[in-house]
Amino acid sequence: MTPLPEVDNFAQITTFALAIGVGLALCLLYDLFRIFRLLWPPSRLLLFFEDVLYWVLSALVVFCFLLVRCDGSIRFFAVLGLILGWLGCHLTISRWIYRVSARLVKALRAMARWIRRHIFRSHSDGLPPVPDPFDLPGRLFLCKPPGFPNEADGFLMLGRIRLRAAQHQER
After folding, report:
1. Measured CA distances, 61 to 19, 78, 81 (Å)
2. Residues 83, 19: Cα–Cα separation, whole Å
3. pLDDT tens, 13-34?
4. CB atoms < 10 A from the CB of 162, how many?
5. pLDDT-derived band of residue 165, with 50, 70 and 90 as boundaries?
6. What are the angstrom distances between the C-alpha of 168 and each of 43, 122, 154, 164, 171?
7. Strand, helix or coil at 74?
8. What H or E segment, with its residue span, contains residue 168?
9. How far apart are CA 94 and CA 109, in angstroms?
10. Which of 31, 46, 60, 61 is the 20 to 30 Å CA partner of 85?
11. If you write DSSP's letter for every residue of 91-124 in order, what string do you get?
């Protein structure tokens, strides 16, 4: 009979603990994707590509982890550690992170609306309005087009061209 290979229990326990850590990190990476979805809601096509990107990154991380720690072989305890780490994070920390992130995004959007409403608006005191840095399409119209009158009040609002009511009625 051939002798059984020697098993190093400490190395297996260490690999299991590291696998839990890698699973936790993969869950936190998924939370990053979820936070970006809160900030900028994607279309269905973009959502598909985000999911594919997450799974490709996850597969690459798991492959590298198994290659380094288990010499490329798939060990049950390593896979179990990855699953337990991901699920443990998803059922505990991830819920808290998502709730806090959703509240933060809601507060940031409310702040941006307040800034747009109160700071980046046309002024009636004769000064030109402050351009709105949040308005990306409107940045094309930050300079005055030729042929427009010289009055500054009511000329630009949130970076977009706005005619005064009297000028609009003459047309």
Report:
1. 11, 13, 14
2. 8
3. 999 999 999 999 999 999 999 9
4. 15
5. very low
6. 37, 17, 12, 6, 6
7. coil
8. helix 165-170
9. 22
10. 46
11. HTHHHHHHHHHHHHHHHHHHHHHHHHHHTSS--S
Q: Could you report the per-residue pLDDT of 116-136, keeping only the tens digit for each?
A: 777 666 555 555 555 555 555
- Please give the residue that has the higher pLDDT: either 72 or 15: 15
Determine the pLDDT at residue 72.
82
For residue 53, the model assigns a pLDDT of 96
CB neighbourhood size of 128 (10 A) = 12
Specify the pLDDT at position 160.
41
Place of tokens 């030729």: 146
How far lies 10's CA from each of 14, 66, 69, 116, in Å?
A: 6, 17, 13, 59
CA-based nearest residue to 138, from 156, 163, 116, 114: 156
| Residue ranges in 42-92 assigned as alpha helix (H) | 44-69, 76-91
Instruction: List the structure tokens of 61.
Output: 């991380």
Burial call 100-123: b when 16+ CB within 10 Å, e when fewer = ebeeeeeeeeeeeeeebeeebebe
